[in-house]
Amino acid sequence: MGLFSFLRPKAPAAPRPAAAAAPKGRLRNRMIAGTAAAALGVVFVGGKEGVRLVAYRDIVGVPTVCMGETRGVKMGDRHTRAECDAMLLKGLAEFEEGILKCVPGLAGAPDERLVAHVSLAYNIGVGAYCKSTVARRYNAGDLKGSCDAFDMWDKAGGRRVQGLAIRRDDEQVLCRKGL
């Protein structure tokens, strides 16, 4: 920069990328409101996933980054903690929206139960969640049976994984609150 550089016309600023559409859903609304349910969702799922700022391959080889994010991740991707936090918030809202389409009864569920179901879907994907015994039993009105079925999702690559078994147990505790 020269002494008189301020006299030169400035180049127009590069256009900013369009902001992503704000996520929707009950959990997102609670996050904005700063409620305990939102905090529970963020702390619970974030705590189960852990934080990795550089992409890595998970136990079955899927490129993963931040707090369990797999969508669009390529090996070598790097993110800041703030980006990871934003990704988790957006992801939780998107997964909540997805599961409410196949299990609409969760919309009126206690906060803990909703967080448990969102956590499971965040880990296994909305498609797998919607086809699961967890979802089928919930839709049939068997709420306890739905919570019991979380145990069916303690495997990765066909093998039982202790970390997943612990996570499913913790999700079941949340799911059963108020039953």
Automatic annotation (TrEMBL):
Q: What is the lineage of its organism?
A: Bacteria, Pseudomonadati, Pseudomonadota, Alphaproteobacteria, Hyphomicrobiales
The name under which this protein is listed is Lysozyme
Q: Which GO terms describe its molecular function?
A: lysozyme activity
Which keywords annotate this record? Antimicrobial, Bacteriolytic enzyme, Glycosidase, Hydrolase
Supply the source organism for this entry.
Methylorubrum populi (strain ATCC BAA-705 / NCIMB 13946 / BJ001)
Query: Does Hydrolase show up as a keyword for this record?
Result: yes
- Asked if the record carries the keyword Transmembrane, the reply is no
Q: Name one Pfam family in it.
A: Phage_lysozyme
Write down the InterPro entries for this protein, in alphabetical order: Bacteriophage_GH24 (IPR051018), Endolysin_T4_type (IPR034690), Glyco_hydro_24 (IPR002196), Lysozyme-like_dom_sf (IPR023346), Lysozyme_dom_sf (IPR023347), SAR_endolysin-like (IPR043688)
